[in-house]
TrEMBL record:
Source organism, top-level taxon: Bacteria
CDD domains hit by this protein: ABC_NikE_OppD_transporters (cd03257)
InterPro entries the record matches: AAA+_ATPase (IPR003593), ABC_transp_ATP-bind (IPR050319), ABC_transporter-like_ATP-bd (IPR003439), ABC_transporter-like_CS (IPR017871), Oligopep_ABC_C (IPR013563), P-loop_NTPase (IPR027417)
PANTHER family named in the record: ABC TRANSPORTER, ATP-BINDING PROTEIN (PTHR43776:SF8), TRANSPORT ATP-BINDING PROTEIN (PTHR43776)
A Pfam match: oligo_HPY
Protein name: ABC transporter ATP-binding protein
Keyword ATP-binding (UniProt): yes
Alphabetical UniProt keywords: ATP-binding, Nucleotide-binding, Transport
Length: 326
């Protein structure tokens, strides 16, 4: 059975000018997202990994138009959302939600949990204040592992894991089809991380939700994802099924990332593929392949010609002149 595409991203770019108005004219830009393309399928989790500053979070925010894109296409359920006006986007946001990295700063400290969760439902006209709304909020909290009687408490009265559950509950309130999760467990203890990840997987199975899961933790990404995309300096350099990319990485940058995953076996030795040098600037990106100044396999063509994203085997995309030869 053919999988249904829920999201198509084509050559998406987000460049931030260095300055405002006339001061920005003629000046270079920060190329935070620089021509990213991929598809997301119904009920699938796509993991995004890469070093800090590679553009993972900016990509997620640009897809939902929390940042206005510079160019490209984002097709959600057959509709190009980049050409929607504010009213049309408001309606679409019922189906697309975001879980923020910091569960404390993303919650209004002056609102209790009931008001935080009910605000989008009232704003979109799904519920009016009354017993039906109260019952829905309490059921939603219990579904996310929080006692319903906590609904009149304020964010500062919860632990980090509980606040993240509130963030997840808020993203689920409108019954979305697609959620971008921006490092939702990075600030939590390992035991709490596992609870949150298992909760997200259970909710995905119940509601057929599609996730883009952004994280630095490669072990977490492997556990929750169906496919994994690797980003470097605003570009997606490799994309494949999780088992394939972890077992057989074909981009030198991906190989270095995967070799850094600790193995819980003191007798087993692994070979580290260290990356030398500093991450180049997003303003003055290197010519040719962006990774060539740090790549141990770089050749002359890498310094002058940018590689094209190509499929080296079904479902395995790599953006490297010599991908598939390592």
């Amino acid at each position: 059975m053919e999988k249904k595409k829920i999201l198509e991203v084509r050559d998406l770019k987000k460049h931030f000018p260095l300055g405002k108005g006339k001061l920005a004219e003629g000046k270079p830009c920060v190329k935070a997202v620089d021509g990213v393309s991929f598809d997301l399928y119904e009920g699938e989790t796509l993991g995004l990994v890469g070093e800090s500053g590679c553009g993972k979070s900016t990509l997620g925010r640009t897809i939902l138009r929390l940042h206005e894109p510079t160019s490209g296409e984002v097709i959600f359920e057959g509709e190009d959302i980049l050409h929607k006006n504010r009213k049309e986007m408001r309606k679409l946001r019922e189906k697309m939600q975001f879980i923020f990295q910091d569960p404390y700063s993303s919650l209004n400290p002056r609102m209790n949990v009931f008001n935080i969760l009910s605000e989008p439902l009232i704003a979109h006209g799904i519920y009016k204040r009354g017993p039906e709304l109260e019952e829905y909020i309490k059921n939603l909290m219990e579904k996310c592992g929080l006692p319903s009687y906590y609904c009149y408490r304020y964010p500062h009265q919860f632990s980090g894991g509980q606040r993240q559950r509130i963030g997840i509950a808020r993203s689920l309130a409108l019954s979305p089809k697609f959620i971008i999760c921006d490092e939702p467990v990075s600030a939590l203890d390992v035991s709490i991380q596992s609870q949150i990840i298992n909760l997200m997987k259970d909710l995905q199975e119940e509601n057929n939700i599609s996730y883009i899961f952004i994280s630095h933790d490669l072990s977490v990404v492997k556990h929750i994802s169906d496919r994994v995309g690797v980003m470097y300096l605003g570009s997606m350099v490799e994309l494949a099924d999780k088992d394939e990319i972890y077992a057989n990485p074909q981009h030198p940058y991906t190989k270095a990332l995967m070799s850094a995953i600790p193995i819980p076996d003191p007798k087993k030795k692994t070979q580290m593929h260290a990356i030398e040098g500093e991450i180049p600037s997003n303003v003055n990106t290197p010519s040719g392949c962006k990774f060539h100044p740090r790549c141990p396999f770089a050749k002359d063509i890498c310094k002058t010609k940018e590689p094209e994203a190509r499929e080296i085997k079904p479902g395995h995309m790599v953006k490297c002149h010599f991908g598939g030869e390592f």
